[in-house]
Amino acid sequence: MSVVAQIKQVTAKAITALYAIEIEDAAILVNATKPEFEGDYTVVLFAFVKQLKKSPDALGQELGDYLVANNPTLFTAYNVIKGFLNLSIANSYWLNFTNTNFNNQHFGKAAPNGKRVMVEYSSPNTNKPLHLGHLRNNFLGWSIAEILKANGYNIVKTCIVNDRGIHICKSMIAWQLFANAATPESTGKKGDHFVGDYYVKFNDAYKAEIEALVATGITKNQAEKDAPIMKAAQQMLIDWEAGKPEVLDLWQKMNTWVYKGFNTTYKTIGSDFDKTYYESNTYLLGKDLVEKGLEKQVFFQKEDSSVWIDLTADGLDEKIVRRKDGTSVYITQDIGLAEQKQKEFNANQSIYVVGDEQNYHFKVLKLICQKLGLPSADGIFHLSYGMVELPTGKMKSREGTVVDADDLVAEMISVSKETTLKKLEEVGKLKDFKADELEQLYKTIGLGGLKFFLLRVDPKKKMIFNPEESIDVHGFTGPFIQYTHARIKSILRKMASTVDGQQLTVYGSNLLPLEKSLAISLELFPTVIGEAAAEHDPSKVAIYIFNVAKTFNSFYTEHSIANAESEEKQLLRLQLSQLTAQVLKTGMQLLGIGVPERM
User: Fold this and answer.
1) How many helices and strands in the chain, by DSSP H and E?
2) Which of 103, 265, 277, 410 sees the fewest Cβ atoms within 10 Å?
3) Cα-Cα-Cα-Cα dihedral of 426, 431, 433, 434, to 10°?
4) End-to-end alpha-carbon separation of the chain, Å?
5) Phi and psi torsions of 180, nearest 5°
6) Pairing relation of β-strands 116-120 and 388-389?
7) Are the C-beta atoms of residues 489 and 599 closer than 8 Å to each other?
8) For residues 294 and 318, what is the distance between their CA atoms, to the nearest angstrom?
9) What are the Cα distances from residue 105, in Å, to 482, 579, 580?
10) Quick one: the chain helix, strand, coil %, rounded to 5?
11) Residue 69 vs residues 91, 95, 130, 430: alpha-carbon distances, Å
């Protein structure tokens, strides 16, 4: 149990003992004491003043006296400042915490809770390669899955691939028109990039045809409809849905090229899935649920035979769930897939990692599923996130101005190589690494910089990605944390004979301020992981481990380990160092980032 949880518990018991009133632990608000006041943690008293009919100062004095007298191993002193009870935690608590956990490789992680959560992320289209926006999506989805797993949940990671529709047909038509039977193999190009090029070629040709038609005197709107290449793509979609063999064969061939490319990217960035769904297999789902919804009067039918749901009472509007020709819309497919996924995995929660432009869609999806009485409904959660932009502005797929994920990852590794080589040469350590070790180090640092930069921001916020800033070893970056971890591991290697395999006892030590600050920050780790899971926000972990790394560097700058004042102090500082390294490693793993043993 964390110190904050203990403070809440003993404070609730103290209120019951002193005033004969039952208070839930959760009702006690505890914060870190502000730097300008003496103490470690502060109990906020205002919520109880009226109920207990006590002035804030009187309540603080009575509670403080009781807590210190009855919990001598936890508290050593208190003070009351304007309704805030500031408590000083006993050194023995921090020493015991450090001694108990410094060798615990599972520190921070919770026991299994028996609950299952499904996390769906990535959701690519098979007409183009993954891009920068997909990277934020993948990193968010993968990280929140790992954070939930660390909180004891059984995790199922899924992906839905958008492998059908007019956008796919555009790439197919362009390949037929312009490729001259070229393939990824014959051109030496990665499959998803190869197909994506034809999506751009389609739009270039489409624009040219529109301009030519407008030049004949027709309106732009009519030209967009009459352009031969668009009509050909629309006919191809009709032929696909009719099951025309030659269309299905081309569709299968081009998608296979794309999947091979996707898998290479996923492997490089460390993204994986337990189950992949394909829209070509799911787009007919939900039709039976429309009929059930009509029977239950959840849906209603208009005169043209289209089927709708009226959500105006819920603050939304009317939403179509089946067209007049009997075909489904996206929301219908998603309802059907939600039901299918629930039958397969029986998850307590289903998290959809999708950009904030789909906020309305997921409000509607959850409402409809709830009104239909689907068992999966209450567990639907949209992890909405903001778009990623570059310093140069927004990206556009059809114009070919998107930053491909592969290109960006390669650039990050290249920048990492340049900066790492320079640093190793400066400190004379380049000769200590074999060639393959160096290549792995460049990749670990480059990907670490990229992932950390995209995850350090609250998912709900839009962000601008700056490659140069993300790799700065002195900034709010992944490489800064990686460097701190490597630095600690170097210290521990040099002092291995002192710390290895020992269950050290340091209870007699007095903690200096920076030793105590480091212990306090490390003790928060399980709480931070819990908050990140509850709020579906990996940035909480990123910010936390960055601050731990900063605190350690301040501690190590101030206090020598090898030349500590006493053996007892040396052992304490080694314990703190070892626990810090473990927290940084685990925290970075939750973000999908590796930490080098040396750099």
Assistant:
1) 24, 14
2) 410
3) 140
4) 36
5) 55, 40
6) unpaired
7) no
8) 15
9) 18, 9, 11
10) 60, 10, 30
11) 16, 21, 61, 58
- Helices 513-523 and 567-590, packing angle to 10 deg: 30
DSSP assignment string, 121-162? ----BTTS--BHHHHHHHHHHHHHHHHHHHTT-EEEEEEEEB
Which of these, 404, 419, 516, 532, lies nearest to 468 by C-alpha position? 419
Please state, in angstroms and rounded to a whole number, the distance separating the CA atoms of residues 154 and 145: 9
Element (H, E) at 301: strand 300-301
Contact assessment for residue 280 and residue 258, using Cβ atoms and an 8 Å cutoff: no
* 316 burial via Cβ count (<10 Å: 0-12, 13-18, 19+): middle
d(CA 205, CA 228): 10
Give dist(CA 161, CA 281) in Å, integer: 10
| Domains identified in the chain and CATH numbers | 3-89 (3.30.1360.70), 165-272 (no CATH), 287-327 (no CATH), 411-590 (1.10.730.10)
Strand, coil or helix: what is 544? helix
What pLDDT band is residue 397 in, cutting at 50, 70 and 90? very low
Going by C-alpha positions, the residue among 167, 159, 164, 171 that lies closest to residue 134 is 159
Q: What is the pLDDT averaged over residues 137-160?
A: 97
Judged against a pLDDT cut of 80, whether residue 497 lies above it is answered with: no
**Statement: residue 398 has pLDDT above 90:** no
Packing angle, helices 359-372 and 330-345, rounded to 10: 60
Q: Which 8-state DSSP code applies to residue 512? A: P
